[in-house]
Amino acid sequence: MPPAEMRELVRYWREEYDWRAAEARLNEWPQYTTVIDGARVHFAHVRSPEPDALPLLMTHGWPGSFVEFLEVAGPLTDPRAYGGDPRDAFHLVLPSIPGFGPSGPTTETGWEFKRVARAFGVLMERLGYDAYGVQGGDWGAAVSRELGRIRPGNVVGVHLNLLPGAGATAEPGEAELAALEPAERERTLASWERYRVWARERQGYADIQATRPQTLAYGLNDSPAGLLAWIGEKFTEWSDPRTPVDRDQMLTNVTLYWLTGTAGSAARIYYERAHADYHGQPPEVSHTPTALADFPRDNFVPLRHVAERTDRIVRWTSYDRGGHFPAMEVPELLVEDVRSFFGSFREGVTSGRARLSPG
């Protein structure tokens, strides 16, 4: 982050940003903690006023938090109040991944995304939801996809705004390209080029967090300016410049990391995945209906022909704006995509324990 930009951001955070206003807004959501698999799990549980709303678990990623969903919670839980159809309502469960924010710091190792998915499945059981949808991006996408894979009898659909492992990570060969339709061939080349840029210029943070998260933690938990730089640049680089993340919302997210002392434990999810026994293996197949909302300025270009090798893709929508944080950048697009996808899964749902058929 350039020094002038950093100085201005620090000045604004110190002199103008209003944490108490942000805190009051977050506290409008009912929030709870429970212990699952030895870890404290924080979650917001925002029930819809509509009795037949569909339960939906939304999971954040890094360097985000449940703060990511501030702009989508209202339209999703109470569409009637936002000029929408009340039949599109959801009961939202917004957990903090163990190690992140109010769910951290963790006190033991091993919290990779598969363990997180198992814990969130238990959370939904405790809340009395037998049938529900899941949604996520970044690490939230990995958690959501895994939850759909291991609980196909409970998860009616998986909605993602990033599909792990669906981009080109090796230069495509001539035979592979020749077998594709022209549009998919062009997209495959674009996917490979974006991955090359990522690997060469942007993934250094991930390498550090996957190998030395504890060393990094000493600096980030000791310096608010250092934490702001480490996280703030990701919100700048990973967002569509046409739809930037609101500065106050980004600072609320950073402040949450600072006040809970979780920069290191949140970063550790990279280390745990990199050292898990399944790391480097192909993704396991999921048969749960899956939708992807593809935003053009995300870090990777997903490929449908790759995704369909392991996932049951039933909806794929590409948008003309938005980046890595669509719930913060283009909330109206994400809300509409979520509503459209889950609309066909609502038959038989009630607000409590209910089975439903994907139809």
Describe it for me?
The chain has helices spanning 3-15, 19-26, 70-77, 113-126, 139-150, 174-178, 182-202, 204-211, 213-220, 224-237, 247-260, 263-274, 304-307, 326-329, 331-342, and strands at residues 31-36, 39-46, 54-59, 90-95, 132-136, 155-160, 286-294, 311-318. It has one domain (3-165, 203-344): Alpha/Beta hydrolase fold, catalytic domain (Rossmann fold, 3-Layer(aba) Sandwich). The protein is of the alpha/beta class and 359 residues long. The longest helix is centred in the middle third of the chain and has 21 residues, at 182-202. Strand 3, helix 3 (70-77) and strand 4 (90-95) form a beta-alpha-beta unit. The chain has an 8-stranded mixed beta sheet with strand order 1-2-4-3-5-6-7-8, with helices on both faces. Helix 3 (70-77) runs parallel beside helix 15 (331-342) and helix 9 (213-220) packs antiparallel against helix 12 (263-274).
List keywords for this structure.
alpha/beta, 359 residues, 8 strands, disordered C terminus, Rossmann fold, globular, eight-stranded mixed beta sheet
